[in-house]
Design goal:
The protein contains one helix and ten strands. With 202 residues, the chain is α+β, with helices and mostly antiparallel strands.
Amino acid sequence: MKYSILILLLSVSVIISTACNSHSDEHMNDHQQTESVDQHNHREHESSNQSENQPLSPDRMAMSDVGNTHVHIEYSAPSVREREIWGELVPFDGIWVTGAHMATSIQFMNDLLLDGNPIPAGKYALFTIPGEEEWTVILNENWNQHLTDEYDPELDVLRFEVTPQENEFTEQLTFVVHGGLETGSVEFMWENVKFSFSVEEQ
C-alpha cells in the first residue's frame, strides 16, 4: 500500500514539473518574440529618425599636409538636387560663402603661399565671387560667421583670381586638399564646375 502511494506521489510530481516547464518555455518564447519585435521596431524608428534628421547640407572636412604644414578646410556641403546652380541659386558677381550655413574656413599653422601669394598662418573664412569667366577667391579674418551676414571687406587678407573649368557632374559640393612634400593644392568641385589653387610652403 505504501509502495503504491509513493508511486502515485512521484507520478503527480513529474506531471506538475512537466507542466511548469512547458509553461515557462512558452513564456520565455513569448518574451523573446516580444523583445525581438521591440528591437526591430526600435531599429526602424532609429533609421526613420536618421533619415528625417539628415541635414541637406552636412558638415564636411578636407585636409592634408603640404610639407610640414597641415591644411584643414571645414565647410557645409549642399547638393544640386536638380536645381540650377550658377547664375541662379548662386548668383554671379556676388560674395558667396562657398558652401552653406557657416562660412567655409581654411586653416594652416605655418605661413604659406596660396596661388603664389603669401598668407600668414591662421584660420580664415574662404569666400568666393563666382563669375562666368573668372572667380575671385577671398580669405577673410572673420572665419566664424553665418553666410555673408557679417562680411567686411576691410578684414580681407588676400584676394586672387582663379579660372573655373568644366568638370564631370558632382552632386554634392566637395573640397579636396591634395598634399605634397613642398607643393599641394586645394580643389573645389560642384555641379559641372571646378577650380583649384596651389599651396606652397614659404
